UniProtKB/TrEMBL annotation, chain A:
This is Putative membrane protein. It comes from the Bacteria. The chain crosses the membrane at residues 108-133, 166-189. Keywords: Membrane, Transmembrane, Transmembrane helix.
From TrEMBL, chain B:
Signal peptide: none annotated. The lineage of its organism: Bacteria, Pseudomonadati, Bacteroidota, Sphingobacteriia, Sphingobacteriales. Residues 22-94 form the Transcription regulator PadR N-terminal domain. This is PadR family transcriptional regulator PadR. InterPro entries: Metal_resp_DNA-bind_regulator (IPR052509), Tscrpt_reg_PadR_N (IPR005149), WH-like_DNA-bd_sf (IPR036388), WH_DNA-bd_sf (IPR036390). SUPFAM superfamilies: Winged helix' DNA-binding domain. Pfam families: PadR (PF03551).
Amino acid sequence: MKKLNFTTPTAQKIYDDYFNRVTRCTRTLPLNDQLEIMMEVNSHIYEATQNTTPQTEVEVLVNALQNFGAPEEVLQPLVADKKVKQATRTFNPRHIIQALYLNISNGIGFVLVAILYLSITAFGILIIAKLIYPNHTGLFIGNGHLFAFGFISDLPNNAAELLGNWFIPVVAILIVIFYFLNTLLFRLLKRK
Amino acid sequence: MNIEFVQNWFSQVKKGTLSYIILIILDEKEYYGYELVQEIKIHTTLEVAEGTLYPLLNRLKTDGIVESKWIEQESGIPRKYYTLTTEGRETLQEMKKIWSTLETAINKLQK
């Protein structure tokens, strides 16, 4: 991408600082998406500096950047949308977490996806806990009613574990179901 | 008058009508981002941060309503031109009908 060159060092510094902020806002995106956004912002700033009344270079640039808005605010929805697209395409956990973080303010749907995703992670931890602490991990009942599913460090004397060796397969099935629901919900939200 | 209420209401109206305004402008000819912002400013009193237009254009592109292409310029800084797709033109016709119905209804109520 051809960057803009200014004759005054102050204008050049303002421009470079602004583009560093744009880079920081978009760095979680794939390189082609980052470049696309940078080129579009660059093109807009260039056109804005060319179509203005004669002023000093610094004034022209500062006006153009102010009119465009702070990149952290105006580009956030664009970065969030592109991140959801990438997460849906790859279903890479890192991209999903980043997409959730960027979209968490966009509604209850993404909060639900985040909860489902946390549950999947918790179920994975439970499988490991069952292998390390088999007597303290499971579906426990005490006094005839259900009281815990997961890991308990201090087991009451009357507690009995119901699932035994079936605990790991049951949790694995829950992971598959939650993963399926999450994928479905994520795609539905993306389509919105 | 409750100024805060009116400002909030106008902010919602602005948010809801900006995509309609963009489609009406793009129906005329293709525009690049900066030029489109200026056109919006000329024809409306909407004061929007120019950068907010790009997330909206990206959403319209994802929905298949607009398409874009980069065109090289002598300056070496290319412009990205936006144009309505066939689906975009059909969508705009439907939006125009809805807007017209709404306008008639509001005019009747206001009398």
